[in-house]
Amino acid sequence: MSEENKREAGRQETSPAAEQQEPAAPEQREPANTQEVAGAEPAGAGAEHPNQPQPDTMPEHPDASASDKPAEPAAPSAADANADAPAAPAEAGGDASAGAGAGAGAVDPEREAKIKAAQEARAARLAAKAAAEAGGDASAGAGAGAGAVDPEREAKIKAAQEARAARLAAKAAAEGGGDAPAEPKPPSPKQPWLDEAVELLKSEVHPEAVEEAAINELSDDMPTITVKAGHWRAAAELLKSHEKLGCNYLRNVTGVDYETHMEVVYFVINLETKREYAIKIRTDRDQPSVPSAVPVWLSADWPEREIYDLLGIDFPGHPDLRRIMMPDDWVGHPLRKDYVPLDPEV
Amino acid sequence: MIRTEELLLNVGPQHPSTHGVLRIVVKLDGEVITEATPVIGYLHRGTEKLAESLNYTQIIPYTDRMDYVSAMTNNYVLVHAVEKMMGIEVPERAEFLRLIVMELQRVASHLVWWGTYLLDLGALSPFLFAFKEREMIIDLFNELCGARLTYNYMRVGGVKWDAPPGWIDKVRDFIPHMEKQLKEYERLVSGNEIFLARVRGIGKYDAETAIAYGLSGANLRCTGVKWDLRKNEPYSLYDRFEFDVPVGTNGDCYDRYMIRFEEMRQSLRILKQAVEQFPSSGETMGKVPRAIRPPAGETYVRIESPRGEIGCHIVSKGKAEPYRLKFRRPSFMNLQILPKLLVGETMTNLIAILGGVDIVLGEVDC
């Protein structure tokens, strides 16, 4: 929205600037071009914020109202903008040449009003189109006209918005409907594993040791638990040693730079029962540090070194934390998202 | 007065017995190793970093270059992970082709290991034998996808090329030939006393140690742990075929040797069934959206490569490129136990133990 306002402001600044020059046609097209861009983009913006309330100030920002149009007529709206484009500058051009002597930089109220009218007309047309598409009530509003505040037009826009909201709601319901019948679907067979581990972590380690717990459906229903870094060592001991869990095999360790934070994921499994977990530990990005799991699973040794090397995460408790892939004197940690090579030649 | 001095010896990085660019810094007391530190990274190409700016199809050739002795299984782990995230169905014919090439690859990979291992131990002729048969498999791959080592054969949703006419028959003919050759290999090597003296009781560890060090593949199974992902966490079509998972009892180099040898037989057994059941027609590519964009989220997929568990952890943000792509490379994990195994051993045993782990440096370094 504010983006849109800025554009609007930019446009109004541009037009007087254009007037300063001789009324050369290409210069005069400037506002039209801006409008074209402004007209095309909001369609996407509107789709991203579908439920943005419509302000009363709508007539003052006709383009803003256009921006709240449904996403579907993106192409037509661009086309409209094109169709409008020649109209507005033509008038503006005429004005400009008339007022060329009237003083550079002066804002011509008449011209302003015309532009506004043109914009409003366009907005109205778009609204009508939206209404037609939404409610199916035909092109009655097409000629709603370039009037100022037209109650009929307002009502139509409102109707269009309501129709759109209803459609969105229906869509949401439909999507939700996909889930709703699925809701009674039996919980994942691995759900008890998850519940059991979470309960044990809470009772044996710390009531607040678990930050999040979920079944990861994308990964064969992997029970995934986010453990607080401060409780990780105790949690690891529990996961490995508790008779119910017994995850004696650490199969993989991954470090991920999420830009907001860092995360280390340990994949553990009990080779007897095949009970497995993905344990995530989040850590701060500026001073990333996760207690080492080497005292619990020896196999964490090299993977943790690799993560330290490539992502810069510290593993206090690791017996031999040093680089493993990169040379010892390497500067930086290449897998970090903000990594910039020290020597661009390398 | 007799004075002893500790000797520091660099084994590698350029030495044929290190199977690539691996360096082991060895401290010796006489001929006995007191400390061994593997130094890796000479072949680190930043595959995981590169992958973050490539789309999934573009990453497939990079997986060829990780474990370059077993490119087909590497291809599979990546495309399988993406298929899992996107819920893509792979046509049966394509899945059969994948399984056939993966098992052929397992035989080819074990042949390379068998030949080079015996070369390490001082026997030249097995190497020539092994490479002769491996060449036949490579020719089959060449005919299938036009490459001998880095195949880039699999795609998300299927395979790039259908089998040319007569190809399956060639695979069918290869199986009895290979079975016959395996018998010959066995007669040639497996009972050889010099060989047995070099591998029996060498590099021993128990199941608990193997699990603690996260070993997989033959390195884990040699201790008696029956853990083969084709059986324990079946993927592809492995649950349709009958095969055994050979395990050892002593956890020494000899058991690892025997397991890999037996695995070749089991692979041929799978191949025999797969060739019989191979669908005579059908698609080789499933329905795949034009833009391969796995939904936001993550998955960890693992399969049994000839060297153990190869895993692919994808973190997706719904884009065409992975946000983070992590490969769990079995060679990298298996190599961790080396310092422990080498202490107290002689230099000659270093070669036998290292060879017995079966590493590929392209995969260690990634």
Which short descriptors sum up this protein?
heterodimer, A: 346 residues, Beta Polymerase, domain 2, 9 helices, disordered N terminus, B: 366 residues, alpha+beta, three-stranded antiparallel beta sheet, 48% helix, 14% strand, globular
**Total strand count of chain A, please?**
5
CATH superfamily descriptor of the domain at 191-311 in chain A: NADH:ubiquinone oxidoreductase Nqo5 subunit
The major pleated sheet of chain A works out as: 5 strands, mixed
Strand content of chain B: 5-15%
User: What characterizes the major β-sheet of chain B?
Assistant: 3 strands, antiparallel
Helix proportion range of chain B = 40-55%
Question: What is the compact description of this entry?
Answer:
By secondary structure, chain A is α+β, with helices and mostly antiparallel strands. Chain A is built from nine helices and five strands.
Provide a descriptive summary of the structure in words.
The complex is a heterodimer of chains A (346) and B (366). Chain A has 346 residues and is an alpha+beta fold. Among the domains of chain A are: 3-105, no CATH class; 191-311, NADH:ubiquinone oxidoreductase Nqo5 subunit (Beta Polymerase, domain 2, 2-Layer Sandwich). Chain A is built from nine helices and five strands, in the order αααααααββαβββα. Chain A has a five-stranded mixed beta sheet. In chain A, helix 2 (25-48) packs antiparallel against helix 4, helix 5 (109-135) packs across helix 6 and helix 7 crosses helix 8 (232-241). Chain B is of the alpha+beta class. Chain B has helices at 47-51, 56-64, 71-86, 92-120, 125-145, 167-190, 193-199, 207-212, 218-221, 229-232, 253-277, 330-334, 338-342, 347-357, 361-365, and strands at residues 7-11, 14-15, 20-21, 23-29, 32-39, 154-155, 158-159, 297-305, 308-316, 324-328. A three-stranded antiparallel beta sheet of chain B has the order 1-4-5. Chain B has a three-stranded antiparallel beta sheet with strand order 8-9-10. A two-stranded antiparallel sheet of chain B has the order 2-3. In chain B, helix 2 runs antiparallel to helix 3, helix 4 (92-120) runs antiparallel to helix 11 and helix 11 (253-277) runs parallel beside helix 14 (347-357). The longest helix of chain B has 29 residues, at 92-120.
